[in-house]
Amino acid sequence: MFSCWLSRLYWALSKPTGRTKPLIWGSLSRSLVLSSQRRIPELSSFVARTNTCGELRSSHLGQEVTLCGWIQYRRQNIFLVLRDFNGLVQVVIPQDESAASVKKILCEAPVESVVQVSGIVISRPPGQENPKMPTGEIEIKVKTAKLLNSCKKLPFEIKDFLKKTEALRLQYRYLDLRSSQMQYNLRLRSQMVMKMREYLCNLHGFVDVETPTLFKRTPGGAKEFVIPSREPGKFYSLPQSPQQFKQLLMVGGLDRYFQVARCYRDEGSRPDRQPEFTQIDIEMSFVDQTGIQSLIEGLVQYSWPNDKDPVVVPFPSMTFAEALAGYGTDKPDTRFGMKIVDISDVFRNTEVRFLQDALSKPQGTVKAICIPEGAKYLKRKDIESIRKSAADRFKQEVLPVFLKASRNWNSPVGKLIMEEQGLQLIRLLEVQEEDVVLLTAGEREKACSLLGKLRLECADLLEAGGVVLRDPALFSFLWVVDFPLFLPKEENPKELESAHHPFTAPHPSDVHLLYTEPQKVRSQHYDLVLNGSEIGGGSIRIHDAELQRYILATILKEDVKLLSHLLQALDCGAPPHGGIALGLDRLMCLITGAPSIRDVIAFPKSFRGHDLMSNAPDSIPPEELKPYHIQVSWPTDPEAEKSSLNHPCHPES
Ligand code: ASP
């Protein structure tokens, strides 16, 4: 319930500022330091209450207080529990004739009506204290009460234990926001952003600059939302990030920029994405990769809630190639092992046909993961479904191998492997008696990526069986570095696209390869990963116009005219620079342990990108479209269109 989460929140974020480096202007620096040292916020200034409901304790006994809050519930018309963002407090409804009007107001107002009460803080009679309530030792003896507004409609009660569908929560978001969880998430978010601002601006001299949201189409990257303009055939685009602006700010000499930036990407339905989301966007001049990494480690450490285990810096680092080989992904969850092991050498002389076939091809490998106690926790149907999904979704064969040959039920290949290559497998994968090995063969990247997915699926299965693999209190940060500068395009692998974005600089030792084997060039791109989710990414940028033009035009085959402003700017004495952006929603989601990023955003869109409360996006009458010179071309089969927007396994939310 509301317990003492607010005090936990304030405590969580109230560590001293630590280093306070003076800024250039003495007086500015003094006032900033002073304001950042104000630690205990005044929660009842300027308003019609003296205290918050949740703050009252025995230390307030005898005080005359005025509270404003919502009626949580009423018992026998004698007690009323009042709630505000800070907690619950019990109010005693007066029973004597002289207070009949107060009694009437408090007994007749429906639950969730908003009232103002004034009275005295008294002790609860002995034996009636409620140790489960932080305010459980006291109650309010009411003198006056005012109904501020009555709650006439209540689609669901504001009780944490009541389960509601997400669609209903989103439709009545303003009510859902009253829940203690949403209050906690949004207040923690606000406080962490405050600490980040403090760290960046007050301790390190960053400048908070707002950049436009009405922009133009940019090459590469995600799909952009388009905004019609009144000029025929001309459109703005919503920026997928302030990337170009922040680089232009460097050219403009604002050499330490940051912004809590809204970004827009029209990426369709993806479970952990939102069409609009927030980044902590950063750019610096005269910096290298380690400079950015240290800045971010300090930022995370400084803004980290105190009620969580402290963050240890520096964060470990892994190359892209190591991540792919060991975890089958560029965002490894390093909270648990089960790493992918190359066992090709064990099978050089195998009799097993599909392994032989795989190894005879270029890039052919045999790879495996060992699931600890898999024989105990994975049921036969789990293994069958793993094999089926590998075959259906990835066109790959997966073979389960148990240590005891007798366990390799209906799998003559598994038995054969255990008999012939068993000892080597046991040694390489450190197999224990109850473990199961999942083995696959094929082209290196495909095999790793499949095992990377199976590693996570098996972790879910083990945890469903009660094994604690990923400690919820553990936050495992990781830098992934040395990405390739380009990757083959999915739809046409002969062409290249940027692995990060086209402004990323090549690794200094690989620049010569740009002109001969661009696919081999490593980049100065770094990603920050937390518990297997990418929470940030950035790069050192190209500041040489010629190199930027070559990459855009010759390698990426982009229309350089679209970026002529940036190319010109680079030619005007652009300093070397680099930056990063942290995905604030995802970071908050991981810190709060929320099931979805929607739970850390006040007014999120549904899974399909709809605002279920206001019904956006909405249609516009044709006459209102006229000034924009656009017309709707209605799909011939609206049902097919609808189902192409729908995701099979997700309802609206
Ligand atoms: N703008 C980049 C992004 O949104 C981040 C960066 O390179 O700084 O991914």
TrEMBL record:
Q: Name one GO biological process term.
A: aspartyl-tRNA aminoacylation
Look up the domain of life of the source. Eukaryota
Annotated keywords: Ligase
PROSITE patterns, per database record: AA_TRNA_LIGASE_II
Q: A single Gene Ontology molecular function, please? A: aspartate-tRNA ligase activity
GO cellular component terms attached to this protein's record: mitochondrial matrix; mitochondrial membrane
HAMAP family in alphabetical order: Asp_tRNA_synth_type1 (MF_00044)
Q: What is this protein called?
A: Aspartate--tRNA ligase, mitochondrial
